[in-house]
Amino acid sequence: MRILLLTHAFNSLTQRLGAELQGRGHEVSIEFDIADSVAEEAVALFKPHLIVAPYLRRAIPESIWARHVCLVVHPGIVGDRGPSALDWAIQGGASEWGVTVLQAEAEMDAGPIWASATFPLRAAKKSSIYRNEVMQAATTAVLQAVERFAADDFLPTPLAECREVRGGLRPLMQQADRAIDWASDDTATVLRKINAADGFPGVADTLFGVACHVFDAWPEAVLRGAADSRPGDLLVRRETAVLRKTLDGAVWIGHAKRAGDFKLPAALAFAAESAALPDAPLEGWWRSDSATWQDIAYEETGGVGFLHFEFYNGAMSTAQCGRLRAALAWARQRPVRVLVLMGGADFWSNGIHLNVIEAASLGDGSPADESWNNINAMNDLARELIETEAQITVAALAGNAGAGGCFLARAADLVWAREGVMLNPHYKNMGNLYGSEYWTYLLPRRVGEEGARDIMRNRQPLTAQGAVAIGFGDACLAGDPQAFRIDVARRAAEIAAAPDLAQQLATKRERRAQDEAQKPLASYREEELSHMRRNFYGFDPSYHVARHHFVRKSLASWTPRHLARHRDLGWKVPM
Ligand code: COA
Fold first, then answer.
1. In angstroms, how far is CA 261 from the centroid of its own chain?
2. How far is the CA of 350 from the centre of ligand 1 (A)?
3. Mutate which of 130, 264, 313, 430 to test ligand 1's pocket (most atoms within 8 Å of Cβ)?
């Protein structure tokens, strides 16, 4: 079938559905929901058999739904309606939630139901639930709905006739519903409220007496700071986060957005103010025994070292790259033979930190200089990994990776990805960025020169299976996060116990030495950085413009041509 994905953005759910549908032989094209007339034009050009809307912020026009079946993905259980589905579920502490695929009609979210799926609702950030449970349930339900549509003998069930209707119509959640009362809210309540608003819109609050939206909350088990502090007081800072007292404990606030600005690490959004708080660093890299905010954490079992880096949104600033490199250098000295880089639960890495770079434009700094520093810090980290000689290194991707983050992963000997993870191993979407992280060394040796050129040019997302199929990844493991962790630990322990491990390490060292003799890493880096220098400091400002819009979330005004295949020159509906 020809299936048009009508969507607000090419987010990870849209990417996953597009890849899954293509993998089942459907012809997929994408149009951003920018204006009714643009969507109508896309339908006229592509003549889809079916329209799927994975992520919409407004209703589909009648001119389209009256003539075509449009399947809308709603992140709520059967009967649930309204724009804040997940927000209400998380804030209300629901134990189970779901995704419903319904047919677009005049009334929003009230059309007949084609498929649905449910899941236990974790206590976690909305963005995390969306990228894990919702993504999985939506994929299952959409694929089932598409099969039912193709079979041509299925009648969707009108909402009024559904037997198990547990949800209802709920309004847009307002900031008044989200407000934290620091004097009376306990830690669990504060966490639920901030989780329900993460990553958008955040909870309207104040920090240091200044109005802002807060995000990215973490519990703290040990009360730190002044003995005479009161609920609501800011107690200490650590790296990029600040600790705030609640009624019965304290929570770390990782990110904040000041009015008119964009989201930043809290200690950067309030740089001067947080510098005045007492510092509460963690000593060393070992994973803390009790709940706290720890962005880099190391643990060891069965002769294997596991390095976790839980960087919000997978973005890695100059300082974070430097600290992770120090942690990796330390881990390399441990008596382990396998090192697994676990990344974070939702993202492995999305490369340089575009928001922190953009923040340089708010003061007297230079975003070009900060970009330069950040890419060099990423490269130093990638080199540390490539040059790890005494261990087999593994990048274990429980979450998505994009741009430089994908090549940082490829700098490890092995890349294992959880089923359901999406990879975007290309740079050009960010204002034609050339990219670095030694990709010109790492990519062709896996997929060949031609394959590398195609990946960079086509700018298509890869599923975990797709990445393995083309040789970018080495294994696609269990889709369930818990099963993935167990699988990773088992496989890593097997490598550590392998009788031929010494031989494997010797072969690895020889290969690196040969590669270095043929062309030193420094040459790859220099060549890549000569392009990056032009991207950052040259005449063409595309990268700075693209970053500005990305960080400030400017609305798209057209669908990129590499996604809207129906707009290709010479594209015709196949006979
Ligand atoms: N720096 C700062 N923030 C980043 C980021 C980066 N490199 N990559 C992603 N983010 C943020 C997004 O702004 C978004 O923020 P939010 O919390 O306000 O929602 C969040 O991470 C999730 O991103 P989103 O685009 O919604 O996730 P996705 O899983 O749908 O898409 C990508 C993943 C990788 C395709 C997309 O995020 C992307 O293109 N990122 C930029 C990658 C890049 O160009 N890096 C620089 C070159 S190395």
1. 21
2. 6
3. 313
Peptide bond into 363 cis (omega under 30): no
Task: Spell 63-83 as b/e; 16+ CB within 10 A means b.
Answer: ebbeebbbbbbbbbbbbbbbe
What letter would DSSP give residue 89?
Answer: H
Contact 345, 381 (CB under 8 A): no
pLDDT band at 570; cut points 50, 70, 90: confident
Q: Is the minimum distance from the CB of 431 to ligand 1 under 6 angstroms?
A: no
The Cα–Cα gap between 422 and 430 comes to 18
Q: pLDDT digits over 444-502, tens only?
A: 999 999 999 999 999 999 999 999 999 999 999 999 999 999 999 999 999 999 999 99
Return d(Cα 415, Cα 408) in angstroms, integer: 10
Please give the Cα distance from 428 to 268 (Å, whole number): 28
In the predicted structure, residue 163 carries a pLDDT above the cut 80: no
Structural domains present in the chain: 2-172 (3.40.50.170), 180-275 (3.10.25.10), 296-540 (3.90.226.10)
**Residue 212 CB contacts under 8 Å (≥ 6 apart), including other chains:** 204, 205, 206, 256, 257, 258, 259, 269
Cβ(391) – ligand 1 distance below 6 Å? no
Assessment of whether the complete model's pTM goes beyond 0.85: yes
Phi, psi of 474 (to 5 degrees): -105, -30
Provide the pLDDT for residue 533.
Answer: 98
| Cβ contact 423:462 at 8 Å | yes
Q: Both tokens of residue 525?
A: 């880096």
Q: Is the CB of 402 under 6 A from ligand 1?
A: yes
Nearest CA to ligand 1 atom 12: 313
CA-proximal residue: ligand 1, atom 36 (nearest): 402
pLDDT grade for 225, boundaries at 50, 70 and 90: low
State whether the beta carbon of 125 lies less than 6 angstroms from ligand 1: no
Structure tokens at 28: 């997929």
Structure tokens at 128: 């995390």
